[in-house]
Design a protein that fits this description.
The protein has 2 helices and 6 strands. By secondary structure, it is mainly β. About 15% of the residues have low confidence.
């Protein structure tokens, strides 16, 4: 029987990602992601929250991109697989660490959501033009700012997921017998 090891998380980065390099020169990036679940307690009527912290690791090009653009507070959608590593501490004791090996990432929220100090990011800014320069070209139409209300800018991210586009899901579900 086929198996699937896929984790999908949407959460906030807890600390700036840390990039290091393996002996072969490949970059590896580590950070922690918080996911928060909230509900209303049936007995007391109080709002309750539970935050779970996840260790995230990524390699090579994804590690470089993550270290460059992801900052503390950034909201991310990520996919990966759950991995447990065994290592020895300085006393020779076996230790285990469970982490998500990130394979895909998408930044959510606005462009500045990860900037805690309001500083600029590394992405190029859009230059404004004042119109025609008298060289016979028509003036460039001025871009108007987006409306103040954006219905897609909610606290709750909605994402359409097509499981039939995921090869691992298609392969696994093809082996399951359908019971009518």
């Amino acid at each position: 029987m086929a198996s699937v090891n896929k984790a999908i998380l949407v959460g906030n980065v807890g600390v700036d990602p840390e990039i290091r390099y393996m002996p072969n020169g490949d970059p590896v990036c580590n950070f922690r992601l918080a996911t928060t679940e909230s509900w209303k307690d049936k007995n007391s009527g109080e709002k309750r929250e539970l935050t779970e912290w996840h260790r995230i690791v990524c390699f090579r090009k994804l590690a470089e991109i993550t270290s460059q653009y992801v900052k503390k507070g950034s909201q991310l959608y990520l996919e990966g697989r759950i991995k447990t590593r065994k290592w020895q501490d300085k006393d020779g004791q076996d230790r285990y660490t469970t982490e998500i090996e990130m394979t895909e990432m998408q930044m959510l929220g606005n462009r500045r959501s990860g900037d805690s100090d309001g500083g600029s990011d590394d992405r190029p800014s859009r230059q404004q033009s004042s119109g025609g320069g008298g060289n016979g070209e028509p003036p460039v139409p001025e871009r108007r700012p987006a409306p103040a209300y954006d219905p897609m800018e909610d606290d709750i991210p909605f994402l359409r997921v097509d499981m039939n586009a995921d090869p691992a899901f298609v392969k696994a579900s093809a082996r399951v017998r359908r019971v009518a």
